[in-house]
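Lecture 7 notes: from sequence to structure.

We start with a single chain of 486 residues. Read the sequence below before looking at the structure.
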Amino acid sequence: MKGLTYTQLRDRFAPCLLHETTEGYVPVPVSERLAQAIWFDQRLQRGKLQTSDGRRVRVVSPGWWNLEAGPDFRRAVIAFDDDAPQLGDVEVHLRANDWRQHGHDGDPLYNNVALHVALWHSGGERPATTANGRAISRLIMSDHLDAPIEQLYDTMDPADYPYDLDSHVGRCEARLRALPAETIVALLDEAGLDRLHNKARRMTRWIQRAGIEQALYAGLMEALGYKHNKEPMRRLAARLPVARLRELPAAQAQGLLLGVAGFLPERTLAAADTGTRRYVKALWDVWWRARDEFEGGELARASWRLAGLRPANFPWRRLAAVAQLLSTHWELWPKIEAALTARREAQRAARLEALFADVEDPYWSRRYSFASKAQPKAEQLIGEARARDIVINVVLPAAIAQAAPEERPDLAEAAEKIFAGYAATEPNALARFTAHRLFGQRPSRGIRTAARQQGLLQIFHDFCLNDRSACAQCKFPELVAQFAGR
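Now the structure, written as tokens:
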């Protein structure tokens, strides 16, 4: 490849297909993102859509553009023939056979796809099927475009999608645009507080079932699972409760956590360095004695999703952090209570975060996996950003939940003040989606606190998530009107 230009290398590694045109016409480079934009904007003859297997198609909603792993569009609403509209995902490709070439027929992330969309036919194209064997209908957009592909290319800039344009906003955007900033801020603040108390109600149920320490432990495990591994972390917390771990040194707790999680490697790692071999032997010394206690209860490796994770976020590093926390901070609730009632209010949030951010492990602080080399510089096992998320999503709801049975309204008041005072964090995909639906490209209208970001998420779950009418029947604009008229 020596001497190749950037364009030549780009065409080899990230090819753009050239639309076939008449002689003498400059060819149009068509990327998959342009195909996605065509689907998103529904630049199709919508009354004539038909799948390759002859089914009529009506698109109620093209879905939400997914910027993360999995299908390109989530929660589309599509009707086939005379059937009622159904909710499902949509995957968009350039060529019909890309479904199989990209391996989606064996990937469970694509099991909920309702329609496979391709821009062009493929020679000898094969049906699309999911990993669980379900056949998926396919729509070829080139048969139904509402304008020539050259014209679409000239008038659509894929770099603007999905959030750098004023299309695809919700019906609520016009009503919110007419409101003063202080009304919007008040709406988001109240929605955020509602979300905090919803989490507190969930935490109350956990406390009633198993006590405050197990509830905090389960919430911590869930938070450290991020969105992809929350479920296996919850199951692990149930199978290996805090009462079983809290009296153990960190090394023994790691042996149990990694053993039940299914992460222990083979006991003989010939290619591993001395430190890894010694560490793995110590883990197996613990697990060998305890594994009969958990026979049949170990999690399958397939339970965990590792694709797309940063190495620093691998679940075995998070479990090592939990083991260290158990050996130093438990019981945790008295420490949380002390932080909430610290004399200086300005220090309370920092003290809560410090319970989780300052965690080190002699092995995992410098490694990402059993196969990796030790890094010259230690990397945090949890980190400040994740510690803040734990405080917002676990600790503060737990404090509000525990305040009632202890008859300590001061704890609930302190938790609400900390919640309201947190600066906004990096928004996740759902917060960005909801902000765009509500406000379009306008400035974020005062979304400068974590509480208001949480308010966006509460609005999403209350309204956007439950709407199957592409905004037509959503009741949130009515709520906005009534809120503004209070």
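Residues 181-210 form the longest helix (30 residues). Keep this in mind for problem set 3.
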